[in-house]
Amino acid sequence: MIVHLVDGTYELFRHFHGLRRFTKGRDRPFGGVIGVLQTLLQMFEQGATHVGVATDHVIESFRNDLWPGYKTAEGIEPALFAQFHPLEDALAAMGVVVWPMIELEADDALASAARIASDDPDVDKVCIWTPDKDLAQCVRDDRVVQVDRRTKTIRDAAEVRRKFGVEPPLIPDFLALVGDAADGYPGIPGIGPVTAAQMLRRYGAIESFPAKALGVQRELALRFKVLATLRTDAPLFADVDALRWQGPTPDFRSWADRMEAPRLLERAARAHASMR
Predict the structure, then answer these.
(1) Please, what is the average pLDDT of the chain?
(2) How do 153-155 and 144-148 pair as beta strands?
(3) Residue 81, Cβ neighbours under 10 Å: how many?
(4) What is the pLDDT of residue 24?
(5) Do 2-158+232-269 and 163-228 share a fold?
(6) Residue 95 to residue 245: CA distance in whole angstroms
(7) What secondary structure letter does DSSP report for 140?
(8) Which end of the chain is flanked by fewer CB atoms within 10 Å, N or C?
(9) 146: left (phi over 0), alpha (psi -120 to 50) or beta
(10) What are the residue boundaries of the structural domains of the chain, listed by start?
(11) Which pLDDT does position 156 carry in this prediction?
(12) CATH topology of domain 2-158+232-269
């Protein structure tokens, strides 16, 4: 059994901005949502059976209390932000398990789901569908991998080592040192990716660094590590079979009508019938 975990927020951004190249800035009210649903249907059509989607119901999380510059909803275009909650409702209507996160982030949900699924002996592989480098910390050998849909690459543990120069469990330490502009924390001045990887290979986790290695920046690095460390304790599901797609619900017809996308309903019914 392969479990597929999808970063719904990333997919919404990807489809929203991708569609703009063709609509010349005339945003369709559900354009991004339709794109995400099409992506999920393609996965089912290609044989996926167990799927969960994580979304940021709100952008802010507990991390905003830890660092004032951490990412917020500020700057997200209203036309895009207006599709956040409809995406969650449309996914649920299509019968897809969706985790809308509030205090935690979508990345925390993906990390938690990966941990739960990988602990199940009936699961052969867990695929986390996101290019977000934060999720590289969840990669385990070739059992838990990242899939980057945009570049069509699969990131297993060997690829994490090649790309970042450290083992997957040290990704939070790596990001703490180099920073993450997308999440809004700068890292430690003067430490770039090469130096960070060298230090981590030499000393291990930041907590093991000798005092002179970071000096007065040690506490700041540890705070950034907290920001970069994904939570894996979200109680999302107890049995991996809860992620099995059972097909569209009766509510999906009204969603297809509302979005003026009748073919979604046809594809969903056909994809589910082929799984029986």
Answers:
(1) 94
(2) antiparallel
(3) 14
(4) 65
(5) no
(6) 6
(7) B
(8) C
(9) beta
(10) 2-158+232-269, 163-228
(11) 96
(12) Rossmann fold (3.40.50)
> What confidence score (pLDDT) does residue 19 get?
80
Which one, of 59, 57, 85, lies nearest residue 71 by Cα? 59
CB-based contacts of 240: which residues, under 8 Å, 6+ apart?
1, 3, 50, 116, 117, 120, 122, 123
Give the ranges where the chain is alpha helix by DSSP (H).
Answer: 8-23, 31-45, 78-81, 84-93, 106-118, 157-164, 171-178, 193-203, 211-214, 218-228, 252-258, 262-275
Question: How far apart are alpha carbons 98 and 217 in whole angstroms?
Answer: 39
Q: Name, in order, each residue with C-beta under 8 angstroms of 193's C-beta and a sequence gap of 6 or more.
A: 164, 165, 174, 178
Task: Determine the topology of domain 163-228 in CATH.
Answer: DNA polymerase; domain 1 (1.10.150)
- The pair of structure tokens assigned to 252 is 């999906």
- Alpha-carbon span 32 to 22, nearest angstrom: 13
Beta strands 125-129; 153-155: pairing state:
unpaired
CA distances from 252 to 47, 66, 170, 194, 257 (A): 21, 40, 42, 49, 9
Q: Which residue is associated with the tokens 């990807």?
A: 14
CB 230 within 8 A of CB 214: no
Find the mean pLDDT for residues 129-139: 96
d(CA 130, CA 181): 17
Express each pLDDT in 224-271 by its tens digit.
999 999 999 999 999 999 999 999 999 999 999 999 999 999 999 998
Confidence of residue 86 (pLDDT cuts 50, 70, 90): very high
